Amino acid sequence: MDQAERRKYLLHYLLAEREEYRGVAIPQDTEGQKRLLRALFNVRMPQPVTEEFLQVQDAYLQEEIRRKGVTDSKTLPELLPDLYLWQGDITTLRCGAIVNAANSQMLGCFYPNHNCIDNCIHTYAGVQLRRACYDLMQKQGHEEPAGAAKITAAYNLPCDNVLHTVGPIVEDRLTITHENLLASCYRSCLDLAERNGVASVAFCCISTGVFRFPNDRAAEIAVQTVKAYKTSTGSRIKVIFNVFKDLDLEIYRGLLK
Region 226-243: what's the mean pLDDT? Predict the structure, then answer.
């Protein structure tokens, strides 16, 4: 199959899963098909699929990521000992683990085509990731608290693992509790990475954006916490601060001089 054939196969499979989708027409244009496929991935519950579906999905997603362009973390310039800064799409970064800013349900973003990092990571990892998170949460028996972390495989992403952490939500004004919880996210991810033999971790800007943590203070806490962790534990984990916005790039550049 080529990419167009794989995409149509996946669309037909997902539309056939639910009775209410039977009248949905597949768009003729490529971008319309991609939007529909992503939306179907986004809203799909963590239920089993056939082995054939996984083979087609995996080939499709890996080719889509290849076309976006993969960056190997080993090529990034070191700014401070074991500390790096990279602006780009975290789903295209090859490293030991990337960090996902998850919600307390830990199942990904169910909002079709939403541009949050949780949605992007689950989209390009494939349906296996939501199922893996579902199994973890069923075993845990309660929602994930802010400041903690879980680890899963990365499936179709170029990284080896995904670290899922729930950051604090700033409803009104920033408090010391918010700051402590954010610091805990970074420590929990690093500790989990150490225990699982992960050599490099790429952190997104946890809790900024829709969680409304101020970007500059979030970056300060991120850098301070990572430095303190590495000093106190002697960890040699390579830490990549991944940013998407120019604003965050400039903030981290100032902190990592």
Answer: 97
What pLDDT is stored for residue 172 in this prediction? 86
Encode burial over 145-177: b for 16+ CB neighbours within 10 A, e otherwise. Answer: ebbbbbbbebbbbbbbbbbbbbbbebeeeeeee
Instruction: Summarize pLDDT for 109-125 with one digit per residue, the tens.
Output: 999 999 999 999 999 99
C-alpha to C-alpha distances, 195 to 77, 178, 198, 222, nearest whole angstrom: 26, 26, 8, 20
pLDDT range class, residue 3, cuts 50, 70, 90? very high
Binned at pLDDT 50, 70 and 90, residue 220 comes out as very high
Strands (E), the chain: 71-72, 78-80, 83-87, 93-94, 97-102, 149-153, 161-166, 200-203, 238-243
pLDDT of residue 257: 87
Residue 78 burial (C-beta neighbours within 10 Å; 0-12, 13-18, 19+): exposed
Tell me how far apart the alpha carbons of residues 156 and 68 are, in angstroms, rounded to a whole number. Answer: 14
User: Two tokens at 64?
Assistant: 């889509």
Residue 58 class from Cβ within 10 Å (0-12 exposed, 13-18 middle, 19+ buried)? Answer: middle
For the chain, how long is the longest CA-to-CA vector? 59
Tokens 């106190």 sit on residue:
232
Cβ(82)–Cβ(237) under 8 Å? Answer: yes
DSSP labels for 146-214?
TT-EEEEE-TTSSSSEEEEEEPPP-SSS--HHHHHHHHHHHHHHHHHHHHTT--EEEE--TT-GGG---
185-204 average pLDDT score: 98
Q: At what angle do helices 51-68 and 3-17 cross, to 10 degrees?
A: 130
Q: How many CB atoms lie within 10 A of CB 142?
A: 7
